[in-house]
């Protein structure tokens, strides 16, 4: 078994339930009537071009941005009638923007331990049990050899793995991975994807939302995919039904060639890019 997860508390219905979410900022419609349902036993990939609203949507799911219209229920917490900080403890979030926010002088293991309290920096005392779990997570994410190294001295790939260990520290029910492969070389990226695949197939592991620009990062564990475009849902459903030449050509508004190699989908343009 990769990592032992404990899902505690009441039985969940849906993991994410967004109904007709719209968001207006500075007279711009950033999210346009988005409905999205994520059930247990599903893992989703969110694919979209730059600026289509992916990060904005994740901020709505985490309760950091309040939608202008629509309803959101995340892990049984209905916005407007819930304690958002409590809800956030059940959500792990890894993004490269988070990488810059940690104190310079903290070690990898301290960063992982802070995940228990969903804090940037460790301000609470920790138990031996928690230290044991942090070490176990570091080991399972292949980071044990730099557990006591200063976080600021780690490479980008090493930091991403530490941040995933941190996100898992509180046994989240939902784990959001926002472009975790940004800046990684080919091997570091494939190693990280392998670890993500292992987390996804854990029987009691968290539901995953994986955000990317790159179709080839959509692993076989991602049962469902949402294609997002200009603040809207372009298509959503079973991954196998979405990653077709017709659908992706319509999505990119450009003829694409789809190649399936070893459970992964690779895209290239049939013609030169058009503007
Ligand atoms: N507070 C704001 N006011 C006005 N426009 C905003 C605001 N926040 C975001 N935007 C705009 O909303 C759009 C969506 O931004 P968002 O960061 O969600 O995109 P994204 O899909 O995550 O992009 P990327 O893949 O490049 O990270 C962008 O055009 C951005 O400029």
UniProtKB/TrEMBL annotation:
Family: Belongs to the ABC transporter superfamily.
Native organism: Priestia veravalensis
Alphabetical UniProt keywords: ATP-binding, Nucleotide-binding, Transport
Domain ABC transporter: residue ranges: 16-255
Xref: SUPFAM superfamilies: P-loop containing nucleoside triphosphate hydrolases
Record's keyword annotation contains rRNA-binding: no
An example Gene Ontology molecular-function term: ATP hydrolysis activity
Keyword ATP-binding in annotation: yes
Taxon lineage: Bacteria, Bacillati, Bacillota, Bacilli, Bacillales
Xref: InterPro entries: AAA+_ATPase, ABC_transporter-like_ATP-bd, ABC_transporter-like_CS, Metal_Ion_Import_ABC, P-loop_NTPase
Protein name listed in UniProt: Molybdenum ABC transporter ATP-binding protein
UniProt cross-references to SMART domains, sorted A to Z: AAA
